[in-house]
Design a protein that fits this description.
The complex is a heterodimer of chains A (284) and B (318). Chain A is mostly helical and 284 residues long. Chain A contains eleven helices and two strands; from the N terminus they run H-H-H-H-H-H-E-E-H-H-H-H-H. In chain A, helix 2 runs parallel beside helix 6, helix 3 runs antiparallel to helix 6 and helix 8 packs parallel to helix 11. With 318 residues, chain B is α/β, with parallel strands linked by helices. Helix content of chain B is 34%, strand content 26%. Chain B is built from eleven helices and 14 strands. In chain B, helix 4 packs across helix 5. The chains are: A mainly alpha (284), B alpha/beta (318). The complex binds adenosine-5'-triphosphate (ATP) and magnesium ion.
């Protein structure tokens, strides 16, 4: 009987497309103090860090630490090695761990889901906004670090990891490539933060737990005898750039790192999507 | 096509764990009417409206809005529908205006052009640039109505819209709803206040503990309602009660007087009797209205439900 009843003709109004929703989410993010502060920080903090380390004794026990006064190309690699311990997971989670859960915090899921957009559109708009934002932060961070290092320390040749000396002309692409290897795990951590914030509905957990999980993964990775399992950790891809700086570079770990990160990304996003699609919106 | 109901909910059930919040209810709202869903706290009104908006999924039953259902049409079934559930929520760090502009972005069409109009309609123009964080409860409620009107809806769904408003705000809200209804808009509102529903609705469904205990027009409900009750206090309540019974009035004694129920002319005659007998009348007040009395009878009576003469309606339309 219901089938026989014709539905009302579609209203003249067109539903907004996913691109419109994406723009909507980006506008909302741009209005946040936190996100603007993060972008400014991604530019300013590396400048301060490079300037400060330039006045300190070189830290000998960290990769590239001993070279930070002798090559401007060594400094960004030293910073990268430090950043992946917890800074990059944190930066990845700051927006991604909040972008879904702040709707729970403000009780606004019901506000936006009673308009003309589907949960799928909202999911992709938020996910793509977080991904885009995190890529932007990473690019700014890398650009600011590399530029400041070269200006402050200079563009001397870069000592390779197997003792060779890499001429300045080759060093820049290698440094950029090294930073580029962080893209995959940063996106993995972005997806992890999205999953945790969608499931817990709590922005604090969404931001903090990926960092904690990252530290646990590093700890597990540093234990001996776990070679197979170690490759599946989301923190391992952060170290694959080491292979690019040897006399005979090896790229296999980079490829593995990208695949592992993509695996994390797909699994986390798939679970988060299904969860958001099915959940009851009862709060607010 | 014009006989497509605005809302056609049939045998809806929704349980949260072991608690059945909505139990096999049927609610049908024709186009252009102002329909009330009335019930005490926890009756399941909000749960029903959440299902209407697709925020939660019914465990069983079907729900169509203008002939479209959530499983078949997805978010398109909300085309032409607007409203809010419980207290409306917005982004606190943004201004009222900014919030409306953002929401208009999710509505598409000409919603963005209507921001000024709707702010004016709810009387928030002067405060539109203030952050929502600084809005009073009533202002947020009005912003909620404004955000619903942005969509230029054919069906307006309001969950306890008078909640938290001051008396003037309640009066304005009711007047606004009536004005909108006069333009042909269908309104579905929930309330726990019989007086409110009586004032603005044409038809009503009364819920209690997840079930429908009555549905029908306000006019039909008035026929079923008991007589107006009066609270009388005198210097000799026992004697006054005897006089009332002698007039055939229904009497119940209370701490501060008598509750007397019956036709107005008999109550008038009773007052004359009391004064003639030399008893002093200390107070005469009208108690709850007949419809309020009926509402309490329907929703407070033991699980048995409605009083004699009322059908324990499942809600199916006449
Ligand atoms: N998310 C939830 N989880 C568990 N139980 C819930 C949930 N939401 C509502 N309930 C229960 O469902 C029943 C109906 O709740 P609902 O909010 O629909 O009532 P209501 O008629 O809107 O009441 P009120 O007048 O207080 O707003 C209540 O017993 C409530 O406790
Ligand atoms: Mg409610």
């Amino acid at each position: 009987m219901t089938a026989a009843v014709p539905a009302v003709a579609p209203a003249a109004r067109r539903r907004p497309g996913t691109a419109t929703v994406l723009r909507w989410e980006a506008t909302k993010l741009a209005a946040q103090v936190r996100s603007r502060a993060l972008l400014i920080g991604a530019v300013v903090v590396p400048i301060a860090v490079v300037l400060i380390f330039n006045t300190q004794l070189p830290p000998k026990d960290t990769i590239y630490g001993r070279h930070i006064h002798t090559s401007g190309y060594a400094v960004p690699l030293f910073v990268l090695a430090f950043a992946h311990q917890w800074v990059l997971p944190l930066l990845a989670a700051l927006v991604a761990g909040d972008i879904f859960a702040n709707e729970d915090q403000h009780g606004t899921w019901k506000t936006i889901l009673t308009r003309s957009v589907s949960r799928t559109q909202i999911f992709w708009a938020k996910t793509l906004t977080a991904v885009g934002f995190n890529l932007l932060v990473l690019v700014l961070l890398a650009a600011s670090t590399i530029t400041t290092s070269l200006l402050v320390v200079g563009s001397q040749p870069l000592p390779g990891l197997s003792g060779q000396l890499i001429p300045a002309g080759h060093a820049l692409p290698l440094v950029i490539a090294s930073w580029a290897t962080a893209v995959a795990p940063v996106l993995g951590f972005t997806a992890l933060a999205i999953l945790l914030s969608v499931v817990t509905r709590n922005p604090t957990i969404g931001v903090a737990s990926p960092v904690v999980l990252g530290m646990i993964m590093q700890l597990v990775g540093s234990l001996g005898g776990l070679n197979k399992a170690r490759r599946l950790l989301l923190t391992t891809p952060f170290e694959t750039w080491h292979g690019l700086l040897t006399a005979h570079p090896f790229h296999a770990p980079v490829t593995t790192g990208v695949i592992v990160s993509a695996g994390w990304l797909v699994v986390c996003l798939a679970i988060a999507y299904l969860y958001l699609r099915r959940r009851d919106i009862t709060g607010g | 096509m014009s006989d497509v109901l605005a809302v056609n909910a049939v045998n809806l059930t929704k349980a949260y764990g072991s608690l059945t919040a909505v139990n096999n209810i049927t609610v049908q709202v024709a186009r252009g009417e102002v329909y009330g869903v009335l019930g005490p706290n926890g009756a399941g009104k909000t749960t029903f409206l959440r299902m209407l908006f697709g925020l939660i999924r019914p465990d069983s039953g079907t729900l169509e809005v203008f002939g479209r259902s959530w499983p078949r049409h997805g978010v398109n079934s909300l085309s032409g529908v607007a409203g809010f559930i419980e207290s409306p929520k917005f982004y606190p760090a943004l201004s009222g205006r900014r919030n409306l502009r953002l929401l208009a972005g999710l509505d598409g069409g000409d919603a963005a052009d209507r921001v000024d109009d709707v702010l004016d309609m709810v009387g928030l123009t002067a405060r539109q640039h203030d952050k929502v964080r600084g809005y009073s409860f009533g202002m947020r409620q009005r912003l909620g109505v404004a955000s619903a009107l942005l969509r230029n809806p054919r069906l307006l769904v309001l969950d306890e819209p008078a909640n938290g408003l001051d008396p003037a705000g309640i009066r304005d809200m009711r007047a606004l709803v009536r004005r909108l209804a006069d333009t042909g808009l269908t309104v579905l509102l929930s309330s726990h206040d019989m007086g409110e529903v009586e004032q603005i609705c044409d038809n009503v469904t009364i819920m209690k503990a997840g079930t429908v205990v009555h549905h029908g027009s306000i006019a039909a409900l008035r026929e079923l309602a008991p007589e107006q009750a009066h609270r009388i206090s005198t210097t000799d309540d026992d004697r006054a009660a005897e006089l009332a019974r002698a007039r055939g009035l229904e009497v119940t004694t209370a701490d501060d007087g008598l509750d007397v129920r019956g036709p107005q002319k008999d109550v008038d005659a009773l007052i004359a009797d009391i004064v003639d007998t030399g008893i002093a009348l200390r107070g005469l007040t009208r108690d709850e209205t007949p419809l309020e009395a009926l509402f309490f009878m329907l929703t407070e009576s033991a699980p048995a439900g409605p009083p004699a003469g009322l059908d324990a309606a499942t809600g199916g339309r006449r």
